[in-house]
Design brief:
This protein is an alpha+beta fold. The protein has a single domain, classed as Cytochrome-c3 Hydrogenase, chain B. It is built from 13 helices and 14 strands. Helix 3 packs antiparallel against helix 5, helix 3 runs parallel beside helix 6 and helix 7 crosses helix 8. Bound molecules: NI-FE active center and magnesium ion.
Length: 511
């Protein structure tokens, strides 16, 4: 029996500790712990609700847009304007969020996960003329190994040429991400922490020069996604095919839905959205979303047991460091009492099950190109494939949305902030379903709660002892070399965890 502790797991956002017990070459037990305590939302209490989208964006520098969107939808709801957002405002919000999806998915594959599969040392003896590869060679030669090491050794399977191509694309991906940030800033002002998405609509007018500036960058990125990102996924899939058979996880998938296609329906679970809301399991039985089924358990989290099992709108957060039996600062969100995975794979599965025509066709096309059954998607490598495919589909949809903007129409509708109200904002972040809940009393925020994608995926055991999605994905996984547990980090990173988001934390009692 070997007890492996990886603390922190590198190349992800925030502070994650993973512990596994390996026996007879397989993981028998797994624990996922968020080791960071934060109190970002503490400062929301007593503030003007209009501060919430600006402050909650500071939960994370990677997905601030998703928090701005969840918070803004929550405020639209609380302010009674959810059904009257102008089309321009709705579309601009989608474009800002979509730009962040593209940036985040490219970031995750190339700059966080690829080094699990691509051997960067293949450029050390590169003798060709490619300036990018020579720059990396010189970088390594100077002993600047920071982003590239430490790493596990042994299981690198690509050819020397493929590795070099992977490294060259690692650099190209930096340019692609810059392009996505520029694109976001056209309507969002800046990245991170944009200023374009606001209750009532958006702040930027969609002038023709802005539309053109957005579109050429988007088309540039679409070429990168189609020709490089998706091709690299297939290259990795060929060499590491066994990773389609590992890391399946809990097999329940949840999507809040995102990218509004209309803004008349005030109930977000019924609103027409490009990514549809709902749940499904591995058998693809689709069910509509009912947010009232969401609860957060804390039996194994460092919070007072009295606060367990609460619906977010009325939830409480009472930190209790050192609580016996607890091992994480993440709560355990559950839906109908069950464990659910969120994220690109969950979205594709739910939308496939719901019969989304574009997603169905794209998933079937990708699987037939790779010669794989649908069940292969529910795996470590399947999550990467799902993320890349979603990146393409969102980018393609954005190319249509940007042309629906009307330079002569309004982007914003005014409102009176209420004295007493409550709101719910549900959307999709790059890493999965994100929801914000708010109560307003006497014109100020009385309670504000967020349930965030990585809180779902990296959650510890719940009150019934059921392990969280990442924990379940690890249990049973084969580990060939306990000194180099590649399989463990490949499974964990396939979820694209962000622990900064996951432990955002609301601390109503000021602790
Ligand atoms: Ni900090 Fe986030 C995304 C959100 S994940 S990255 O995507 O919401 O928990
Ligand atoms: Mg929370």
């Amino acid at each position: 029996m070997t007890h492996i502790v990886i603390d922190p797991v590198t190349r992800l956002e925030g502070h994650l500790k993973i512990e596994v017990i390996v026996e007879d070459g397989r993981v028998q037990e797994a624990k996922s712990s968020g080791t960071l305590f934060r109190g970002v939302e503490l400062i929301l209490r007593g503030r003007d609700p209009r501060d919430a989208p600006l402050i909650t964006q500071r939960i994370c520098g990677v997905c601030p847009i998703a928090h701005a969107m969840a918070s803004t939808l929550c405020l639209d709801d609380a302010f009674g304007i959810a059904g009257v957002i102008p089309n321009n405002g709705r579309i601009i919000r989608n474009l800002i969020l979509g730009a962040n999806f593209i940036q985040s998915h490219v970031l995750h594959f190339y700059h966080l996960a690829a080094l699990d599969y691509v051997d960067v040392s293949a450029v050390a003896d590169y003798a060709g003329k490619d300036t990018a590869l020579n720059a990396v060679k010189a970088f390594i030669g100077r002993g600047q190994l920071g982003p590239l090491l430490p790493r596990y050794e042994g299981d690198y399977r690509l050819s020397r040429e493929e590795n070099r191509e992977g490294v060259a694309h690692y650099l190209e991906a930096l340019t692609a991400r810059r392009r996505a940030h520029e694109m976001l800033a056209i309507f969002g002002g800046k990245m991170p922490h944009q200023v374009g998405i606001v209750p009532g609509g958006a702040t930027a007018r969609p002038t023709t020069d802005k539309i053109a500036a957005f579109l050429w960058r988007l088309n540039d990125l679409r070429a990168f996604i189609d020709n490089i990102y998706l091709a690299d996924i297939l290259m990795v899939a060929k060499a590491y095919g066994d990773h389609f058979e590992t890391g399946a996880g809990c097999g329940n998938f949840l999507s809040y839905g995102g990218f509004d296609l209309e803004s008349r329906e005030t109930d977000l679970t019924r609103r027409d959205r490009w990514i549809r809301a709902g749940t499904c399991s591995r058998d693809l039985a689709y069910a509509p979303l009912d947010p009232r089924q969401i609860r957060e358990d804390v039996r194994h989290s460092w919070y007072a047991d009295a606060t367990t099992g609460q619906y977010p709108l009325h939830a409480d957060t009472a930190p209790q460091p050192g609580k016996e039996g607890a091992y994480s600062w993440l709560k355990s969100p559950r839906y109908g009492g069950k464990v659910f995975e969120v994220g690109p794979l969950a979205r594709l599965m739910v939308n496939y099950a719901a019969g989304h025509p574009v997603i169905r066709q794209a998933v079937d096309g990708l699987l037939s190109a790779a010669g794989l059954p649908l069940s292969a998607l529910v795996s470590a490598l399947g999550r990467h494939a799902a993320r890349a495919l979603e990146c393409k589909l969102v980018a393609d949809a954005m190319a249509e949305w940007v042309l629906q903007l009307d330079p002569d129409a309004p982007v914003y509708v005014g409102y009176e902030p209420p004295v007493h109200a409550e709101g719910i904002g549900l959307t999709e972040a790059p890493r999965g379903a994100v929801g914000h809940w708010m109560q307003v009393e006497d014109g100020v925020i009385a309670n504000y709660q967020a349930v965030v994608p990585t809180t779902w995926n990296c959650s510890p055991r719940d009150d019934h002892g059921a392990p969280g999605p990442v924990e379940q994905a690890l249990i049973g996984a084969r580990v060939r070399d306990v000194a180099n547990p590649f399989e463990v980090v490949r499974i964990v990173r396939s979820f694209d965890p962000c622990l900064a988001c996951a432990v955002h934390l609301i601390t109503p009692d000021g602790a």
